[in-house]
Structures are given as structure tokens and as C-alpha cells.
Amino acid sequence: MRPSHLLLAVLVAAVWGVNFTVIDIGLDHFPPLLFSALRFLVAALPAVFLVGRPKVAWKWIVAVGLTLGVAKFGLLFIGMDAGMPAGLSSLVLQIQAVFTALFAAVALGERPTGTRLLGMLVALAGIGVAAVDEGASGPLGAFLIVIGAAACWGLSNILTRKAAPPDALNWMVWVSTVPVLPLLALSLLTEGPSADLAALRGFDWAGAGTLLYVAWGATVFGFGAWGWLLRRHPASTVAPFSLLVPVFGMSSAALFLGESVSPLRWCAAALLVGGVALTTLTPGRREAGAEEAVVPVPAPESATPAVGSGTR
Question: Could you tell me if residue 298 is left (phi over 0), alpha (psi between -120 and 50 degrees) or otherwise beta?
Fold first, then answer.
């Protein structure tokens, strides 16, 4: 990999990691579901008029839009709004790799190797340590909500692999069109019109900056650059850079939000990142006759590679 390409891969990981801190700041300006809806609206417009027609069937765009956009990001934003720290969220969300492996075993016939099973156990041990740490110092309910977001992300990884999008940016932009109305409807029902209107009336430069960052920075730039790298290098070369996301996530949260990192959290980080590396970067066995897995592109809030692909 050329030095310029290497720097681009690190930059994308940094953008995705810092994104958790930006989300935390944005939640001071918007209710979580409204913030998520606006994020996808800004990501989709005007990009949807520039990326061309969808290159996969609409059933996959809708399925991933609901699973990833509404369920995963809705739960992530709710969990962080309920008190889940930004740095810890960037770390805990990596457990999606274990969920992806489990779903892949059921839906795609992938039989995990011994190394991959060991990675899952190590990652789960990291989640256990993180849960103990968070249970002692923060809201455990918010922690579990983010775990639920990771499970939804794992399911969306399987749907993405079935869809096999040939263009990462085109795919993400069209997927971003799906969650806007469902998230707005859920926001009106659960957060209330008065809270949404108050947030929109109080719209300021700080709120606009967070929206632009999560939509254009983490989504449009992140996906476009990551897909560009994947078209020029093997997935196994690009994928390891995604493991830097929680490093940047925890560091930026400590620097800009003053979040402390306890010894237990460092232990959880080491176990989780190590387990995810074993789980995602180790090829899995497939049942005879099973279709080859395609390389999905990771979701912008945490770019850990999906299982068996080498690329979140």
C-alpha cells in the first residue's frame, strides 16, 4: 500500500472514531431519533442526485435501510443519549463482529474455525469486563441498548453480503434515503413534536456542524474513501485499519469530552479489539456448495470488518 493510501486508511478510521464524540455533542442539540433522521437526510441529499441509479435491488436497500439505519443507529443514538459514553460506545459496538459470525453461521452456512471461535470468546470476555465497569460507574441499561445496536448491525452485515453492492458510496447514499421517514415518525411518536420543534428552532452553527460531520464526513467521505481503497487493495490489507476506530473513539472522547478510561476499560478494550481481530480477520469454513461471501463495506460509526470479508 502506498504511503498516501496508508494515510487515507488511517484518516478514515480517525474520522469514524471521532464521529462518536461528534454524536455525543450533537445529542446536546437534538433528540436522538430526530438527530439520526436528520443525519440520514443530509447524507442522502443532494448526494442521491449525484451517485446515479441504485445498483442493487430495492428489497436489499429497504432491508438494510431499516435494519442499519432505523434499528442500529436509532438504538445507538438512544443508548448514547441515555448515558452511554462516546468512547465506550465506539468500543462496545465492535461486538457486532461476533453477532455477524453467529448470523453468518445460520444464514450463510459459514462454520467458524477454532481461531474464530476463540476470537468470539475473547471478544465476549471484553464485553463482560466492559459491562462490569459500566455497571459500576454508569447506566447499564444504556450499555445493553448499544449491545442491541451491535446485534442489528450484525444482521445488516449479512443482508449487505447478500445484496453484494458493487459501489460502496452509491449503496450507502441510497440506503440513507430509507430511514429518514421512519425515524421522523418514531421521533414524533416517542420524543414528541414539541421537543423536535424546539430542537429545530434552536438550530445553530454547532448543531449544523455535527450534522455535516456525521453525514458528509463519516458517511459520504468515509464510505467513498473506504470503497476507493477496497477497489485498489485486497480487503485483508484494508481491513486491519478499521481496528483503529475504537482507539480514535476513546482517545477523542477523553480529549474533547473529558471521559476517563479506567483500568477495567483498558482491559476490556484489549480483549475486545484482540477478539474482534481474531474473529474478523480469520477466514471461515463454508458448507459445501455455499455461495461465496462478498465484501461488505462497514458502517460509518464503527468500521470493524464484517466476518469472513476482511472489511463497518
Answer: beta
